[in-house]
Amino acid sequence: MKPDDHVCLCFRVSQRKLVNWMKREQPAVPSRMSECLGAGTGCQWCVPFLKKLHAQWSAGEEPGLTVSPEQYARRRTVYRRRGDQTQT
Ligand code: FES
Predict the structure, then answer these.
(1) Which element (helix H / strand E) includes 55?
(2) What ligand 1 atom has the least distance to the C-alpha of 39?
(3) Atom 2 of ligand 1 has which residue's CA nearest to it?
(4) Best label site of 52, 58, 75, 87, fewest CB within 10 Å?
(5) Domain count, the chain
(6) Ligand 1 pocket: which of 5, 11, 36, 49 to mutate (most atoms within 8 A of CB)
(7) CB 54 within 8 A of CB 46
(8) What are the tens digits of pLDDT across the range 33-73?
(9) What is the pLDDT averaged over residues 62-88?
(10) In a domain, 25, yes or no
């Protein structure tokens, strides 16, 4: 992913916004990532990725996801289809 690719697809929150928010707000726990424009509070697909970014930042690494945006979006589509199936 590039910095301007969206990590939270529901709320269109980019990796850059999330990283800058962590650097500014210094969140102690990953659950606070939702305070960045509601990231993770929709379908919740991105929650594991928000946790990964937070873990990288907490470890002193430059946060970043290696998955391509296309693959990421495809995997979310599958995730959401499965969710739809469990609701019927
Ligand atoms: S992709 Fe982030 S809540 Fe749906």
Answers:
(1) helix 47-58
(2) 2
(3) 8
(4) 87
(5) 1
(6) 11
(7) no
(8) 999 999 999 999 999 999 999 999 999 999 999 999 999 99
(9) 86
(10) yes
